[in-house]
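Table 4 source record.
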Amino acid sequence: MEILPVLVMTLALFVLGVLENALHQRNVEKIPIRIHVNGTRGKSTTTRLIAGILRQAGYRVVAKTTGTAARLIFEDGSEEPVKRRRKPSIIEQVRIVAEAARRQGDVLVIECMAVHSEMQWVSERRILNSTIGVITNAREDHLDVMGPTRKDVASTLALAIPHKGKLVVGEDEFFDFFKEEAKRLGTTAHLADTFIADSDMERFPYMMFKENVACALKVAELLAVPCNVAWEGMVRATPDLGSTQIYRLEHAGVNVYFVNALAANDLTSTVLVWERW
C-alpha cells in the first residue's frame, strides 16, 4: 500500500507535464517567426540588430538577450531586465515564449543561453523550434564543457540548428560542417557574406563588428526586408550593455581612453577589438 501514494504522485506529475508541454507548444505555434541566435560571441548584439531590423520593417517583435545583463525587449523597442528568482536556467525561455505569444508577437528573436550540449538540443528542439537559426561564430570559450577544441565547440552549437528551417552562419571556417548538419535536418544553410563598406559601419555610434551586421542582414534578406530598411533598423537599435564602447576623459590636458571590451573574454575576440581600436 505504501507504493500507491508514490504512483499517484508520479501519475499526477506526468499529466501536469503533458499539459504544460501542450500549452507551451500552442504558444510556440502562435509566433510565426522564431529566430534563435547562437554562437560564442556577438549573440546579444546580433539579437538586437535583428529585432531592430524587423521592428523597422513593421513586424511586431519581442526579443530577449542573455549576455551582460538579460533584457526583455518589447514590440515598441522599450525593454526591462529579465526577472529571476533563482539561478539562470533555460527553462526561463518557456516564460519568454509565453510572453511573446501573449503580446501577439509576429516575431520572437531570442538569444541562446545554453552551454552544455544536451541543453543546446533541448533549447532548440523542445523549447523554441525556431524557423531561423543563427550561429555567429565558434570560438575558444567554455572549453570545459564545449571543448576542448573549436571543432568541438562547433559540434555543440550544431545541436541547436533548427529542423526544416533556415540557418545563418556568420563565419566561413566551419560553414561546410554546419551546412552538412543542417542538410541532415532538412534545413538550408546560408553564409552571412554580405559586403559591408567601412563607411556604412561608421553609422553606428559605438564599436560594431561586420560579422554581427552581416548575420543580421542575411536574416533580413531571408525575410525579404529591403536593405535600406534593414540599415535604418540596425542603426536605431539600442546597443547591448556589454557592447564594445570607447569612452574619452580629458584630464589636465591629457586624453584618457577607456575601451569597454569586458565582454570579449576569448583571445580571438580580444584581438579583434585591439585591431579595431
